[in-house]
Amino acid sequence: MKTSWNELLLIEDYLLSDRNEADKVVLEARMILQPDLKDSIFWQEKTYSLIEQYGRQQLRKEIEQVHGKLFTAPEHASFRQRIMQLFSK
User: Fold this and answer.
1) For the chain, what is the domain count?
2) What is the mean pLDDT of the chain?
3) 49-83: per-residue pLDDT in tens?
4) Which domain holds residue 79?
5) Cβ(19)–Cβ(13) below 8 Å
6) More confident residue, 9 or 58
7) Angle at which helices 35-72 and 77-88 pack, to 10 degrees?
8) Entry pTM
9) By 3-state DSSP, what share of the chain in percent is helix, strand and coil, each rounded to 5?
10) Which residues contact 81 (CB under 8 A, 6 or more apart)?
11) Chain centroid to CA 57
């Protein structure tokens, strides 16, 4: 199953933008007439979801690295103490 560039643009517009209701109805009618289009939309949504999950995992890793560096490195001891004082109140 190969997705054309125009179809991909149509799918992205459908998934990512706030289109008016008439455009959505037309695309939903096309999905009924073209089952492959419905499958393409499903897989594009799935792809966006996986990319979002991956991005969140990467962000968590970066935050954990910064946390580890700030709260374990001796050169950041004064910063660590100030933060601990903020949360001890």
Assistant:
1) 1
2) 89
3) 999 999 999 999 999 999 999 888 999 889 889 98
4) 5-88
5) yes
6) 58
7) 100
8) 0.68
9) 90, 0, 10
10) none
11) 11
